[in-house]
Amino acid sequence: MSTTTPTPDPATDAGATTAGPTQIRSLTVLPAYREDVELHTADGLTLVGELARPLGPDGGPATPAATLVTLHPLPTHGGYMDSHVYRKAAWRLPALADLAVLRFNTRGTSSPRGTSEGSFDEGRGERFDVAAAIEYAEFHDLPRRWLVGWSFGTELALMHGHDPSVEGAILLSPPLHRASDADLDAWAEFGRPLVVLVPELDDYLRPDEARARFARVPQAEVIGVDGAKHLWVGEPAVRRVLDEVVAHVLPGHAPLPTTWDGPSTTATTGTGTPVDGADDERGDAREEDA
């Protein structure tokens, strides 16, 4: 069983509300129904997270068109549920694409939301974390569930994401350090779509090598992204990621709009924790200038 605590929009880390046509920038927070959630694993741990859903006309949550279950980068290198691509997905996609975004801290990981119980286990014990997140989405009738993994999160998706209730997975910057050829073969047998976004300038795995490695998965689509780096820093990189996610989960709904005609807020706090070795606050500032 999992629990929720409602925290409707505007987000608690946002500044003053604005209205009217607004350019969507790095720190723009669009309307959504946001809840603090707890996930409970089969090995007895409580994980902290947040669920952002489309906002209904009555101020409550609306049923989303699909659901993103996000798996964050390596926590020993600053990855957590607020890693900037996921934070921006939660800020934008409920309003722009009618998507629900579930973010959570894997075992032993801390963020402003709190600290999940347990300790980092190199992707082994995290299989229970992945299962708890998928179970939460299924139990709460969140439809059309897709896994979205980034860096270490891609390894978790490949190793532990073969759940029949999952429609597919989108991988951002897969290093393929922990995930083996056997895991790729298992995903091939699983048969669900696998979309792989590989930065041209990635630190670990670049497009040509990725195409060779993922050739074991016939249904895998490997997309090289020119000029991008492992951390997807910069507003153009973030927009490319979110456009690709929406294009594959909800075909025909991308590219996303770059302006918003309605109430919005600007985030002012909670953006300074490093993400996979990069200072996320400086990254946000660079995106504002991009």
From TrEMBL:
Biased composition (Acidic residues): 277-290
Chain segments carrying region Disordered: 1-20, 252-290
Bias (Low complexity): 257-276
InterPro entries: AB_hydrolase_fold (IPR029058)
Name of the protein in question: Alpha/beta hydrolase
